[in-house]
Each structure stands twice: as structure tokens, then as C-alpha cells.
């Protein structure tokens, strides 16, 4: 990197630290995001990287306190503190990289070690801007318009790039949500069919999956649900029919429970989440931090998944194994090598599905459709369907001869069900009649 390109961010840290600030560099007293002008952010960046040196300066002490409070996992505090300023363009990725490398040279008598950085804060800053550059370049490459049939677009949420596909020009809006390890194109044979039936279709690739960004943050069910909520508000712009597969079904159920005004109906395709007939209380969510065990476990699990991915995916397509084709396998495998993928896999070890599925959809029951592949290798479909029928009145349940991903294994059957379901709900909404 040429020094002339990064001179905008080249400041002597001693000059920065000598200027006592009467005001906080943070946007709010309780928040962690650094704000203000470029000098403010560079000052905060210098303090962040020198976290392990300590300081007697007031504003740097405040920054160090915020680092401790927001370090939910190694390096995560950089995104929490400086990420918003990067997204707003207050400071550039090149500036961050320049300042980090310059400080690394200061610590090592002018040398850069080939064995890693000398401080986790330096590594956190460099890794974060490298990751952002990676996903920005990939976003530029992947935005397409397929002859007006459907288009692949990017949307920025909380500073992170989210990929989605949209098809159809008018009609009811339908949002398709994939499961863990998948992506928007997992609905490859549903998107155009639903659009052709007179719907506006949006298939989102969730944060942490596919071609969407995979930042160094702690992933939770509520985070993904909030992402969907803002996607509906900012991108779709009207209430939607929410369709979710596997863990994506649990996410859409959370959305329907917390923000029901944005949801017309819920379609759960082999959804995750337990049915608890006589729940007495709903546990409050707790702050989650990663551990050494989850760090190691995620790396081992990711290696295992890469080696066995074809076999594992084919098991989820028991009636039509040919649908687990090379295209699908290669898409999943490619994403597993993206920057940040191990961090996403770590979330498996901290998933909290303790809020019962029947609680989440309780107020929506008459507008909930269950599509269940009865040969799902991941769960006991017969027992699940029986429990739903017994304890969840008003649901519509469709049983299919398929595995964990009926929408992709038998897309024609799932499409036919949705062709009937969506107009039915729309008619009820129009007339005000009950389901």
C-alpha cells in the first residue's frame, strides 16, 4: 500500500493523546460507537490499538473501558467501536490498515512479523478491514440482473452488506428465509415460480451466510430476527408473507411474535424450535460470549463439514438425492472459506431456542402454514406433526414425502401449496374474514 494513499490517516499518537478532550468521542453515553470527525475517530483508533499499554489520559481511558465492555469475543470490540465510522466514511479502510501496520512497525523496530500481529487489537483492526474489503469486492461482482426475471442486489444493514434476490413487479410480497449454512438461492426453483404466480418475491441471504458479510460479532436468534424486521421495513416496504426453512423458520416465528404488524402469514418449512405444551414462563435472553471450547469446536466442526458436506446434504434430500447437486454443494463449500465463517459456526454452540415455537406463533395460529418433510433426518417429523396437531389449534399442516428441505427437494409441490395459501390469506385480509 502506498503511503500517499494512506497519509490522510497518518497521525502521531502522542500528538493525539496530548490534546485533552472535554467531550466524549462516543455518539452516546451508553453506546460503544465512536463518532465525530476524522481526527476524533483516528484518536479513538490509536487508543484502541494501544489498549494493552495503558494510559493516564481521560478520553483514552474511556475508550479502553468501552473495549473491555464490548469485547464479546476476540477482536469484536473493533467492529463495535469503529465499525459505524467506517460505514459512514468518516475514516477509510485504508486509513485503518495504515495506522495498524504503522503501529505494528513501531512495536517491532520497523519489522512486520510473518507469524502474526503482536497485539490482538492490531489483528482485530486489520482482519476487520480486510473482511470488509473482501465482501465489498464480492458484492460488486455478484450484483446481477437476469434478463428482467430476477435480480441480485446488496443492502447495507448496521454497516454490513446483505445480499438478496428479488423477482416480480406486483402482487403480495413474499420473503423467503433459508436455513443454517444455506443462502437465498436455496429457493432457486421457488423464486421465479412464485413471482410468475403474481407475487413480489424477496429471498434474503442472512448475515453470516452465502455471499452476505460475516463480521466478527456474536450471532444470536434475535439478531437475525431484527435483520429480517429491518429488511421488511427498509427494503420491502410493506407487510409480507414470511417463509422460513429450518432455523430460518424459527427466525420468522420470532418476527411474527415481536413485530406482527409487518407479517401477513407465516410458512414454516421443517422449522427449528421446540413445542412445549405447558410452558409456564419465557426465559429472558442473556448476553452471550464465546469460550475457548466453542472456538476450538467451531474449527473442528467446520473442517468436518467441509470434508463430509456432500454426504450430509444428500441425506437431507432422501427422495431426490440428485437435487443435492454440484452447484448446491459448491456454493455451500465456497462460503465456508469466506473471512469470518468460523465465527458464524461458533454460534451453533450458543444457540438458544428456549422460547417455545408454539409461544411464538400463538397469536398467529390461523395464519400459520406448516410444510413438513416427513423423512427429515434431523428431526422426528411424525412426532413433531402429532405434537403440533395436539397443542397448536388452527394451524394448517401439509405433510410431504421429502427430507429437511422440501422447498428444494420437491419445489413443485411446495410451490403448489403456496400458490393456494397466499391468495387465501390475501382474500381473508381483504374481506376481514377469519382464517
Automatic annotation (TrEMBL):
InterPro entries: AB_hydrolase_1, AB_hydrolase_fold. Pfam families: Abhydrolase_6. Residues 1-22 are annotated as: Disordered. Transmembrane segments: none annotated. It comes from the Eukaryota. Residues 174-416 form the AB hydrolase-1 domain. Gene3D superfamilies: alpha/beta hydrolase. Residues 1-13 have a biased composition (Low complexity). This is AB hydrolase-1 domain-containing protein. It comes from Arachis hypogaea (Peanut).
Amino acid at each position: 500500500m502506498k503511503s500517499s494513499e494512506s497519509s490522510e490517516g497518518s497521525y502521531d499518537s502522542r500528538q493525539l493523546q496530548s490534546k485533552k478532550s472535554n467531550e466524549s468521542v462516543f455518539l452516546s453515553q451508553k453506546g460503544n460507537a465512536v463518532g465525530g470527525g476524522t481526527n476524533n475517530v483516528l484518536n479513538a483508533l490509536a487508543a484502541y490499538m494501544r489498549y494493552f499499554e495503558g494510559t493516564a489520559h481521560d478520553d483514552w481511558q474511556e475508550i479502553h473501558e468501552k473495549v473491555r465492555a464490548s469485547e464479546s469475543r476476540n477482536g469484536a470490540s473493533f467492529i463495535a467501536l469503529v465499525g459505524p465510522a467506517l460505514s459512514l466514511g468518516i475514516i477509510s479502510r485504508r486509513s485503518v490498515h495504515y495506522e495498524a501496520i504503522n503501529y505494528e512497525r513501531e512495536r517491532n523496530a520497523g519489522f512486520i512479523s510473518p507469524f502474526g500481529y503482536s497485539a490482538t487489537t492490531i489483528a482485530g483492526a486489520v482482519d476487520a478491514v480486510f473482511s470488509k474489503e473482501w465482501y465489498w469486492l464480492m458484492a460488486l461482482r455478484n450484483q446481477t440482473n437476469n434478463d428482467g426475471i430476477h435480480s441480485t442486489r446488496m443492502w447495507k444493514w448496521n454497516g454490513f452488506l446483505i445480499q438478496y434476490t428479488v423477482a416480480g413487479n406486483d402482487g403480495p410480497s413474499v420473503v423467503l428465509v433459508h436455513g443454517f449454512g444455506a443462502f437465498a438461492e436455496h429457493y432457486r426453483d421457488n423464486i421465479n415460480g412464485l413471482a410468475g404466480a403474481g407475487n413480489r418475491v424477496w429471498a434474503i441471504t442472512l448475515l453470516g451466510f452465502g455471499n452476505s458479510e460475516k463480521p466478527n460479532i456474536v450471532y444470536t436468534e434475535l439478531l437475525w430476527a431484527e435483520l429480517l424486521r429491518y429488511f421488511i421495513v427498509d427494503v420491502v416496504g410493506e407487510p409480507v408473507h414470511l417463509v422460513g426453512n429450518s432455523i430460518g423458520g424459527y427466525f420468522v416465528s420470532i418476527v411474527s411474535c415481536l413485530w406482527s404488524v409487518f407479517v401477513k402469514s407465516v410458512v414454516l418449512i421443517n422449522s427449528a424450535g421446540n413445542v412445549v405444551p405447558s410452558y409456564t414462563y419465557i426465559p429472558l435472553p442473556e448476553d452471550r460470549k464465546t469460550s475457548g471450547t466453542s472456538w476450538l469446536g467451531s474449527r473442528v466442526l467446520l473442517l468436518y463439514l467441509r470434508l463430509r458436506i456432500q454426504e450430509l446434504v444428500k441425506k437431507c434430500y432422501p427422495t431426490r438425492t440428485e437435487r443435492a447437486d454440484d452447484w448446491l454443494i459448491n456454493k455451500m463449500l465456497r462460503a465456508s472459506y469466506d473471512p469470518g465463517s468460523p465465527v458464524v459456526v461458533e454460534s451453533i454452540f450458543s444457540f438458544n431456542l428456549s422460547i417455545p415455537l408454539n409461544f411464538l406463533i400463538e397469536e398467529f395460529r390461523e395464519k400459520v402454514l406448516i410444510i413438513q418433510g416427513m423423512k427429515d433426518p434431523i428431526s422426528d417429523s411424525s412426532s413433531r406433526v402429532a405434537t403440533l396437531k395436539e397443542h397448536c389449534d388452527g394451524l394448517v399442516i401439509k405433510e410431504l414425502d421429502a427430507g429437511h428441505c422440501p422447498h428444494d427437494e420437491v419445489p413443485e409441490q411446495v410451490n403448489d401449496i403456496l400458490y393456494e395459501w397466499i391468495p387465501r390469506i390475501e382474500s381473508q385480509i381483504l374481506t376481514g374474514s377469519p382464517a
